Amino acid sequence: MRPTLVVGNWKMNGSKAVAESLCKSIIAGLSADDTGIAVCVPYVYLADAAALTQGTPLAVGAQNVADQASGAYTGEVSAAMLKEFNCEFALVGHSERRSYYGDSNASVAARFEQAIAQGLTPILCIGETLEQREQDQTFSVIDEQLDAVIDKVGIEAFKQAVIAYEPVWAIGTGKTASDEQAQEVHKYIRERIAQKNLEIAGRLQILYGGSVKPDNAKGLFAMPDIDGGLIGGASLDAEGFLKIYRAA
Ligand code: PEP
The CATH number of the domain where 42 resides is what? Predict the structure, then answer.
């Protein structure tokens, strides 16, 4: 049995006060033996989140990480900087980064590599658009996005990584993949990793993301290859986020 993981992605929402109150409310709903729960907060709230979550079961992550270690890269934040704020996770390749900010497969692979080099756990987001699904390209898109990273860092790096399957058509749209649709792609991802390394595939946490809500989480998380979720909109409400966590 793989441990489950539920990660909130706050995106560019909230304020300093909202970030503090969300962290506090989530922590208040957890007990000391809870594990496998994290929030990816905007960079500017990392310090506050690190202070509030210290010694609690709630882990903290960033929503991206630079593809370089240091230097003249205005606006970027390095993996080493994130480590200074007790970050455990960093999202890489979120579809909003890929589509709005041009994060290519090559840049996502470099970000993944930087995260690993500093001991962060990258959460590699992959998934197809609606058009790609309708043209039967789901699996080839998954192959391309996955292979770009494996080719750069090697399969061993996935010992310290998480994958999030996030069909782009389900993100922030209220449309969720059915339990079976999601399971089909999760199984495919695990099998593709297994072709390179069976043991890593067996341990790898593969999260589902795309309009997960308290009322659909249980069905999705009951699927054999779905090990938890990456939660956007619904993670901005502590009570709902905790319900999703309990469903895992
Ligand atoms: C996300 O941002 O990764 C996401 C899955 O968003 P939502 O849950 O709002 O669809």
Answer: 3.20.20.70
CA atoms within 13 A on the CB side of 143: 6
The tens digit of pLDDT for each residue in 15-36 reads 999 999 999 999 999 999 999 9
- How far is the C-alpha of 25 from the C-alpha of 9, rounded, in Å? 16
Q: Structural domain tally of the chain?
A: 1
For residue range 137-174, list pLDDT tens digits in order.
999 999 999 999 999 999 999 999 999 999 999 998 88
Prediction pTM value? 0.97
- Ligand 1 pocket, CB under 6 A: 9, 11, 166, 171-172, 209-212, 230-234
Which residue among the candidates 94, 96, 128, 186 is catalytic per the annotation? 94
Please give the residue range of the domain that contains residue 200.
Answer: 5-247
C-alpha distances out from residue 228 to 17, 86, 129, 204, Å: 28, 22, 21, 12
